[in-house]
Amino acid sequence: MYPDVNAMDRLGIENYVLRLLGNLGLIEMLKPMRGFENFTYEFLSSLSFTKDKSKTDNPNQRVSFRLLNVDYEMPLENM
């Protein structure tokens, strides 16, 4: 999370927050964390759930996803 510049402006506190963060050396907090956004897109766009409906007593349920250009797959226990 990061402070929303538009919300701070509407509240009339943007200058105070900018000055405080600048004095603390934390002005970088105002920049959106694009890396996390990209990780989230990669993960959600590749998320897949597979359920084998042919075996009711021991189904082969798996989840797979991609993160940081690495494919992951893991079995899920019976739920």
Instruction: Please tell me how large the radius of gyration is.
Output: 22 Å
Helix and strand sequence: HHHEEE
Helix content: 25-40%
The assigned structural class equals: alpha+beta
Strand content of the residues, in percent? 15-25%
Low-pLDDT parts are none
Specify the number of helices: 3
Largest sheet: 3 strands, antiparallel
Secondary structure: number of strands: 3
Label the overall shape: elongated
What number is the mean pLDDT? 78
What is the first-to-last residue Cα distance? 33 Å
Strand order of the main beta sheet, please? 1-2-3
Q: How many discrete domains?
A: 2
Oligomer: single chain
Describe how the helices and strands are arranged.
Blueprint: H1 5-11, H2 14-24, H3 34-46, E1 48-51, E2 61-67, E3 70-76
Antiparallel strand pairs: 1-2, 2-3
Compact summary:
The protein is 39% helix and 23% strand. It has helices at residues 5-11, 14-24, 34-46, and strands at residues 48-51, 61-67, 70-76. The longest helix is centred in the middle third of the chain and has 13 residues, at 34-46.
Structure, explained:
The protein is of the alpha+beta class. It has two domains: 1-32, no CATH class; 34-79. The chain is built from three helices and three strands. The protein has a three-stranded antiparallel sheet. 0% of the residues are buried.
Features:
79 residues; alpha+beta; three-stranded antiparallel β-sheet; 3 helices; 3 strands
